[in-house]
Specification:
This protein has about 140 residues and is mostly helical. The protein contains 6 helices and 3 strands; from the N terminus they run αββααβααα. The longest helix is centred in the C-terminal third of the chain and has 36 residues. It is elongated and about 80 Å long. The N and C termini lie far apart (about 60 Å). InterPro entries: BTB/POZ_dom, SKP1/BTB/POZ_sf. This is Kelch repeat and btb domain-containing protein.
C-alpha cells in the first residue's frame, strides 16, 4: 500500500478528500480496509456513490497528513514532530474516520513517538546543562 502512496499513478486513487487548500486522493479499497466509515459509505446500497468528501475541518494539515500516511503504510513518518495538540486532533480523527484497530494502532504509535521525542529532548537538555557546568568549572580553574 505504501507503494500506492508513493506512486504518481492517479488512476489508482479513485476517491478525493478535499480540504481548504489541497485535495488528497485515495484508492477506495484502502479506505474500505482501514475505515469503518468508508466501508459503510462505499459498500452500502444507497444512491449516493460520490467520489469526494469535503470535511475534516477539525484536523490541521499536519494531523491530516499523519492520517494520510498512516492509512497507506501503518506507520508515522520519522520527521513528523508530535505535539499534544496533534495527539488531541488525532483522537478526534480516529473517531471521525472510524479507523479499524490495527496492529500497530495509530494512537499507540503517536503516544510512543511523543514520549520518545520528549525523552530525547530531556536528554539533550541534560547534556547541555552538563556542558555548561563543565565550562563554568573550566573557567574557574583558569
Amino acid at each position: 500500500m505504501k507503494r500506492i502512496y508513493l506512486n504518481e499513478n492517479e488512476n489508482e486513487k479513485d476517491f478525493i478528500i478535499e480540504r481548504k487548500e489541497k485535495q488528497y486522493k485515495f484508492p477506495k479499497l484502502i479506505l474500505i480496509m482501514r475505515s469503518e466509515l468508508y466501508r459503510g459509505m462505499f459498500l452500502s446500497v444507497t444512491e449516493d456513490k460520490s467520489n469526494k468528501v469535503t470535511d475534516y475541518s477539525e484536523l490541521s494539515n499536519k494531523s491530516f497528513q499523519i492520517f494520510e500516511y498512516w492509512i497507506y503504510s501503518n506507520q508515522i513518518k520519522d520527521e513528523i514532530e508530535i505535539t499534544q495538540e496533534i495527539i488531541n486532533e488525532i483522537k478526534i480523527g480516529i473517531d471521525y474516520f472510524q479507523l479499524n484497530q490495527t496492529n500497530p494502532n495509530l494512537f499507540d504509535l503517536l503516544i510512543k513517538k511523543f514520549n520518545n521525542q520528549n525523552q530525547n529532548q530531556n536528554q539533550n537538555e541534560n547534556e547541555n546543562e552538563k556542558e555548561k557546568e563543565n565550562e563554568k568549572e573550566n573557567c574557574l580553574i583558569l
